[in-house]
Amino acid sequence: MKMQAEVIREGELEKRSDSLFQLWKKKLVVLTKDSLSLFPDGQKRAKGKELGFGSILKVDCVERTGKYIYFTIVTKDRKEIDFRCPDQSCWNASITMALIDFQNKRAIQDFKSRQEMEQAAGTQERRLARAP
Q: Where are the beta strands (DSSP E) in 1-93?
């Protein structure tokens, strides 16, 4: 059973569709420390799409117009997903900060894992060097 992650922010965001006409569709968005979940028609009852931060490369192309802030989430497989939000909502900043926090924690975990592996390898080498 999957545990509920702590919600950092929840609200409405508009996503540009992949269809030919590229219409803007409102989504209920739930931001956690590990992912961004998008629910159609503003309801969490429906099956949502989860963008795990492990699959996101960056938040890019931030552009401000009079009414909206436009931004793009780029995935590690180079897919671009376009969003817009009301100018004062700062969703792009919230997502960017959560992504940076996630990437920093992952980098620290990777560094510690490498250090532990190197220490274990060094201990093994010393044992072999002492063996008769």
A: 7-16, 24-32, 35-40, 49-52, 56-64, 68-75, 80-86
